[in-house]
């Protein structure tokens, strides 16, 4: 590996190097949502050629369609699935008003981009990782059953991402709530269809059965063995990100952004604060950023000091 992203003067303390890189990365993170909101709200579709923006917008359109269909079906509207394109776009604008929802979808787009990249470069299966295989083969029936449920959910997620779609039931509870609020605001105060749709959606929703809910439950159930989920080649991208989020106390969306090239300091600090040895941190860099090496002196940092540096906020929606 080469020192592609860690730049420092010779002999500069490792804490200063990492703080400088972290501050630079955090400044970049703070601009993501305002820029994304501007691009997604634009009527000029030529700006959506970039993959992440295009995928985020497509998921917004899919969620908007699902919300409008739910409202139409609740009112027993004939041809409720025959939506007006202008109304879908108006719903997209309404959803863009919620920063946390937009950040979540952006994070999923980043996760899928990394999944495809590691599948192409390392042959990492986007559905069935070695860790998931082991969980499915567990002698504990509850673990094996949850593993099978995650396998099915990850399969659906993979198929949906290839079509640039996302089911409402896969949203975290607070994000689904934000989407439902946006539907109500779009439909107008006291709209009967929005209220009926909210009840129907909430009645059919179970966060624990969602892909992210299943990942969190399985990793937390691993106890001391959860450290193995911090190997991206062993756990797969989704499980790795969830494990990193749990181990560091970071929001999962922020943990996802940690894998970006511009966030190498945050990734190194997160892995170190999660208790990984420098050699293991370097192994993850080989997998995720093979062109980047850890800065000189990183091996002397330690988990506590890494966590203290990482504790600085980013301004990214949580």
Can you walk me through this structure?
Helices cover 65% and strands 0% of the residues. By secondary structure, the protein is mainly α. Helix 1 runs parallel beside helix 15 and helix 3 crosses helix 7 (173-187). The model is unreliable at 43-49 (pLDDT under 50). This is DUF2336 domain-containing protein. It comes from Novosphingobium aquae.
Percent of residues in beta strands: under 5%
Largest sheet: none
How many strands in all? 0
3D shape = globular
Key features of this structure:
318 residues; mainly alpha; 15 helices
Indicate the topology:
Layout: H1 14-41, H2 51-74, H3 85-96, H4 99-122, H5 130-136, H6 141-162, H7 173-187, H8 192-203, H9 211-221, H10 232-235, H11 237-248, H12 252-257, H13 264-273, H14 278-288, H15 303-310
Protein name: DUF2336 domain-containing protein
Summarize the structure.
This is DUF2336 domain-containing protein. This protein is mainly α.
